[in-house]
Amino acid sequence: MPTGYLALVLHAHLPFLRHPEDATVMEERWLYEAVVDTYLPLLRMFEGLAHDRVPYRCTLSLSAPLIAMLRDDLLKERIAKHLDALIALSESEVERTRKEPWYQQLARHYGERFRTLRGTWQAHDGDLVRAFRRLQDAGSGLEVITSNATHGFFPLMDRNWNAMRAQVAIAAEQYEECFGRRSPGMWLGECGYVPGCDALLRDAAVRYFFVDTHALENASRPAVHGAHAPLYCESGVAAFARDADASRQVWSAKEGYPGDKHYRDFYRDIGFDLPVDYLKPWIHPEGHRLYTGFKYHAITHDQLHDKWVYDPAIARGKAGLHATHFRESRLAQCRALAGRMDRPPLVVAPFDAELFGHWWHEGVQFLDDLFRQLHFDQHGDDRVEPMSPHVYLDRHPTHQVATPSASSWGQRGFNEYWLNETNAWVYPHLHAAAERMVALARRFAAPGAAGPTDLERRALNQAGRELLLAQSSDWAFILKTGTTVSYATRRTHEAIVRFTRLHDDLLAGKVDLPYLAALEAKDNLFPQLDWRVWA
């Protein structure tokens, strides 16, 4: 037996961002940037580990909206164009920096990187979901799970359990369609848990989920092993808790590795440094500046000026050193815990996947080094073994039974980030829409009812999609952070207005076909959705 286990969990998620009516909506770039900075580099890393026969284990949570976007032909076409634009910009930058050798070297570095990523994209025909499925099916060590349907925040949805059930069931069905099996685990939006929602996971054949540390610390019975072994809920579904120490070392920009002065600075970008006339082909058509991905400076210090020129070789070495420090810290942690436990302690380290590569440019290299060190630089039983929750439950099937406390992994651990003076206005609309959706579904599914016509069935399904889109936790999050408030407000309003019109049309028996068809073409996620799940 090893001294302990390390379960790395990467949660890849974005809200549903699809604007067929306007290719210049800047928020859609969130998806393009995540694909280029994080998802493609992670795919290449996993494929490299498999090729080199490094026995890693890692859990990748692909959220249900992200799966929908990664499979969408329009968005795949736009991602490919984004990659081509980055390559064109690299060529322009090589020419512009011909008298600045350090910058030109970086421009060439970026050009090579983007061409390599485009090669990976083309090798998989732009289908990253299928690529991750192939890795999972091959038994490489990757375990792919999903999230509830639109990342709804369950602690603020529990007045309507049918709406919560729909969030779980629809995501589980989408995953099964894409991966040919049921999702072994499910990431609840914002790690938001409320007692009883685990029974909904059980009904969807989901085996485990994740919570923050205090959910087990404040469980209905004291957690004997704290956060270092899961609890079984009364439903039989396992709750795995985040380890605070491991998370802090990686996540924190101040205390953690990403803040090292030699790493690449995210905020210093040529999109804000160079003249608009030069940047015109690569920024918004109306001249709005944006991040291009070409960043020539290291973090150095807190100010945006007088920064060092970024050196990829030095940063590469730092990533290896930090991987060593993280590995040794986890081994020391497991040694300290092992004497008090009847099984090897489990350190669960969940992170937003976008931290690696996007926010922390060297993060994917850090992960690659970590997995290789866990294999090559440890000997005997005094080691930390990479682990996935599914395999852990097979190996250690007996656990304490208790009910975790309601919680999230947000600020101070509960609901305040998603319910405060900036976003409280959202919830009366969400609750009313959910109640109306349930009433509609029950009306059309009632015993003895004639059932919906084909047009009404389509309208019921689309009403469900609009409700799900309104329930996305991302909009309340953005309203709190104050980043793109107008966009989050507009998306919430649009979804509620669309739902309300479909609801009223269904009650009146007058579904507007052109209006419905336009919504089906625009908000096209979950094509297999069945309105009866709300009944």
SSE inventory with pairings:
Elements: E1 4-12, H1 29-51, E2 58-62, H2 64-70, H3 73-96, H4 101-123, H5 128-137, E3 142-147, H6 161-179, E4 185-187, H7 197-203, E5 208-211, H8 213-217, E6 231-232, E7 238-241, H9 244-251, H10 270-273, H11 276-279, H12 312-338, E8 346-352, H13 363-376, E9 384-386, H14 389-395, H15 426-445, H16 454-470, H17 473-481, H18 485-508, H19 513-522
Parallel strand pairs: 1-2, 1-8, 1-9, 2-3, 3-4, 4-5, 5-7
Antiparallel strand pairs: 6-7
Helix pairs in contact: 1-3, 1-4, 1-5, 1-13, 3-4, 6-7, 12-13, 15-16, 15-18, 16-18, 16-19, 17-18
Task: List the secondary-structure elements in sequence, H or E.
Answer: EHEHHHHEHEHEHEEHHHHEHEHHHHHH
Q: Any idea what the CATH architecture of the largest domain is?
A: Alpha-Beta Barrel
Can you summarize the main beta sheet?
Answer: 9 strands, mixed
Instruction: Quickly count the domains.
Output: 2
Structural class: alpha/beta
Strand content: 5-15%
- Give the radius of gyration: 24 Å
